[in-house]
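Retro notes
What went well: the complex prediction finally ran end to end.
Inputs used:
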Amino acid sequence: MSTEDKIVSYRRLFGRFATGVAVVLAEDGNNVVGLTVNSLTSVSLNPLLLLFCARNESESAATVLRVGRFSVNVLTAHQEAIARHFAGPRTTTTKFNCQRSEGFVSIPASAAVFRCTVEGVHLGGDHRIIIGRVIDMIGPDECNPPLLYHQGRYTELELDMEEKFLAGTEQR
Ligand SMILES: Cc1cc2nc3c(=O)[nH]c(=O)nc-3n(C[C@H](O)[C@H](O)[C@H](O)COP(=O)(O)O)c2cc1C
């Protein structure tokens, strides 16, 4: 199998690993930059650490590393347009409805927001693994259904699952 064929198979099969969707945001001067990610992973509880992976060429990740702080905004099913916005081509002058607090920008009505400082960065082939130390976190008491990504598509929980989710009866 050629390298290109392997990459195609890898993407196709890894697409079966369903994930949530988050937007990593950073502010550089008056410019808010961000990228949609599904590589978000919790790393450590003590200290609180998380990671996401970003393409080596990612301009938003370069800004995150330059300013040393970022927010991770976990999206709900109502926020697909925001995921698309930060996954597509755009200019840094794009106006986006962000909240500002204590030097961090975040997306209102997210399921959860983690405010982080950059703890470390590691090479991972054509991506960088960026570790964040969680400084604080916020989220509404009620958890809305999450935005999901599966097989290259945005999706959400099936309706009956959603009802169970909202009723707080989901199995752990
Ligand atoms: C659901 C979804 C998840 C994504 N996850 C990642 C990711 O984890 N890391 C990454 O570098 N790009 C990811 N991307 C692609 C980036 O969002 C996209 O390339 C974005 O335009 C990068 O912006 P930047 O060039 O400002 O860094 C994802 C895209 C989608 C639609």
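What we learned: Residues 21, 33, 35-39, 52-55, 58-61, 86-87, 149 surround flavin mononucleotide (CB under 6 Å).
What to try next: split runs per interface for comparison.
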